[in-house]
Amino acid sequence: MTSLFDTHAHLDFSRFDQDREEVISRARAEGVKYITTIGSGGGIGSMESAISLAEKYENIWATAGVHPHDARHMDDETLRKIETLAGRDKVVAIGEIGLDYAKEYSPKKVQIKRFREQLALARQLDMPVVVHDREAHDDIMDIFLKDGAGPQGSIMHCYSGTADLARKFIEMGFFMSFPGVLTFKNAHALHETARKIPLEKMLIETDCPFLAPHPHRGKRNEPAYVKLVAEKIAELTGVPFSEVARKTTENAFTAYRLSMPGTASD
Asked: Is this prediction's pTM over 0.70?
């Protein structure tokens, strides 16, 4: 069976409290052997719970960072805590960090300040970043141009922009991660982006429990469904599913600087 890597999940969220073990088992049954659970929702507690979860499973890793929604709750002590957590063995990136202007739960100026601080920490630690960019393309790019982008292997999570913008991020060393939205019939612009960027720079993700792919749209998402994203990439690009699975898994190991197993297939 070809192995898949869900590069962005939120397995510590309460929506998995009743059946987390079964969710992980279902993922394995669908060939989703590797998962990164993102420690950014709700502050330090979520980071620690995500890391603790990763430490229980050989093929699950975690990140540490403050989501832009929570930037207003972040202070200098939080940044020091992220630095400490980043030293844990199963922590592979700083994230998810970035800007979200769609809902603006935190003021834009605060989001920008905390994003730049965490980006600087990632560069200091030489760790990849997982970037959340929602309706903030211009400011994200401006920060990268002024401050420098994330270290090589960094990830633009849940990518929703154009192919031209994707190419600019790729030139800065980023991987582009596609979520379940790619499977939606009306996601024409995203379909075009997937057709135009190289498979060598693609990752797949669920962002579960959010953004379930078709035909599960509107329901709780889970890592098993990342297979549907890989199948959609294969359909859009004409590349065999087995090659999409192999390459996106290889890309994920490169992005997160993990040692690749002897083969991407079981």
From this structure: yes
